[in-house]
Amino acid sequence: MRLKLASKPLIALFTAAVLIAGCQSVQPPSTAETPKTQEETKTPADTSTDTKTTEPSKEPATDTAKGDSKETPRNETLYINGLQWGAPTNFNLLSGNPAFPINYGNSRELVYETLFMVNELNGALEPLLGTKYEWQDDTLHVELNKDAKWSDGQPFTSDDVVYTYQLGKKYDINWSSYWTYISDVTADGANAVNIKLSKDNPNRLTVLDSIEIIPMLPKHVWEEIEKKANNDLTNIRKEVNSDPIGSGPYKMYFYNDQKITIVRDDNYWGQSLFGKLPAPKYITHVIYKDNAAGDLAFKSGQVDVSQQFIPQVWNMWKNGTPIKTYLKDAPYYVPGSMPSIFFNFSKKGLDNADVRRAIAMSIDYKKISDLAMSGYSAAMEPSLTLNTAAESKYVDQAAIKSLQWTTDVKAANELLDKIGAKKGKDGIRVLNGTRLGPYDVECPYGWSDWNAALEIVAQSAKAIGIEIRTKFPEAPVWTNDLQTGKFDIIMNTPAGGVNPSQPWSRAHDIMYSKQVAPIGEMAFWNWGRYKNDKADQIIDQIPTISDEAQLKTLYTELTKIWLTDIPSVPLMYRPWVFHTVNESVWKGFPADGDGSDIPPQIAMDGAGIRALYQIHN
After folding, report:
1. Cα(505)–Cα(502) distance, rounded to whole angstroms?
2. What is the pTM of this model?
3. In Å, how far are 83, 366, 385 from 332, measured between CA atoms?
């Protein structure tokens, strides 16, 4: 089933979330990792869901806070969970790991805003602090919103944009990587900037990506912070920034180790853009100890928007509880990434494309979806693109059909027979003197959906005479194995994230061999050290092309190479956000087919921020 999520003509905008040397390439992981950061949630061992309906209480159940808890009216407060898993330590964007709602990647539009908002449904970049952009030769010209102001009343200007970009050049922070592709950022009057491409790496995709990724900071505030810290990043990161000055619709209100509350800025400049203020006066993120506690609060109506992984979510609404997912039916959530296994091309046996194809054909993808993902993954259609309208349009689906595989154990055995891989007395095949196993397949311990998926991979391989063993080290060991190539088969998410640059950035992570360190040294993409000169050429070419027909030809050719060589195998379609809502208090959340084109980005990141202007009591 191919998901159709975009009702408007799709806009051919690309950006890139390319991970370069110095930036760890590990993507937001399984739904099962011990809660630490915004996308990392912990799957409870008990997958049963209480279906008893309970009236919502005034305040989520938390231990008594020290001091003034700043309790807020329930009908004015939107409660959320799943984005903050520990007590907040700072609200400093330069710290590396700020708390909600400052975190770089899940709540960018609440306090600090970006120039444009990405819409995951169609790839469009919607205006925010920026009003429009256009390429002028090797320069991206961006017009800024003249109405925009900081929460302290100071105007937002081009100086703030230049300053924010320059911070990434001056210090090693989240957006420093963009300077690999940018030579300069300059003001063009008070309300426009010019972002010039690097002559050595003129990649338009990454520059476009920057205008929807980088949160803007007020120069007049952060210059003082820099001065106080003697321009030393270590000292700058010690700044808690508990009352941040941003341009967004909310300001800090209260926080402790149990919850974080922000309050609407009734002087928000965006009233001229959105036509009104957001509906919730307050947004509170309650910090639960685990998924079980968060799920119970959500089920009872104490939480309105849950970003947690909820196993068997359909049990939540069996007794009429007003709980909804973005998609009415399975797979319930919009796919946003493809966790995959990668083969080490230096390993005998795995260096054979037919062996890799046989492994891919043996895998029971439906079982992975049903058991590891609670059915949240649609039927697998192997491609470099997600099975969504926003991505699948870039590939000629008929042209790749003959190369795509399905679960077919009989055909996999026949393929191995054909290439002369004969079974030994122990049932394991031998090819050209190389026993096909044991091969270890690994991912971090405790990431239960990934662990379950790899158990299925190992079980499936037995049926075709290939021995695969699961290996679940601690996350730091897995990270080192991934990057140094110290693995046989390993699981990771290539270019995770919902960006208009997809599927280019995903193809880059899987296939691009240029500047990849040899095995034993750190690599930040192409972890299996796959090499195909034609693939490299196409990946280099795509960012220079704007013609959609030509792009489709290039992506189709690149996908054919991938389907032929099989450097990786996607195991599931995984949502980038688990947008589940309880409409006991707040109603009108966006849903597929409602005509709003508001994406399920937790109602507070990217174009998902528009949901805050649509919901009501």
Report:
1. 6
2. 0.83
3. 20, 16, 19
